[in-house]
Input
Amino acid sequence: LYNTWTMISDIDIETEFLRYFGEYRYYFGILKFIFKNKYVKGNLKFTDENNIKKEIFGNFSLFCAGCLPWISSDFKIIPNANSNDNFIYIIYIIDYHLSLCERMQLFFHCLNGNHIEKCDYIKFIKVKEFTLEEIDNINNSYFVCDGENLKTKKINVKNTNLKINFYK
Output
């Protein structure tokens, strides 16, 4: 499962009306993001891999949490994610104003799967649980879980260490 907010969720939800274009609809959303840089004030509380509780407050332009590297068949958003270690992997950009050139480079590096190494403004953490809340609605965004708009301004996520196996 993936939880997204800000950049990725906005691209997803705001291109729903173009669904008949298939995956090409996302290019419209990417272009919109590149030319309109958006930030949303939020608060992230989490328990890290060492059981230390932390809190981060600021203007987010990217938030993505999940347990798998791939968010879609052609987009490796969290390359180091490992579904077998019982952590939730989070990448985010906070309190950093991306220039037009940096926004274009960000998507180039994302498509190549090396954005975490190439973009030093992207933060990466491993957590056991987190709470994310949108603080103001000046630039509201969407909380999305696996492509579905949750229609809320706050989410709580906890790894339960439960596994599902499918057999054929």
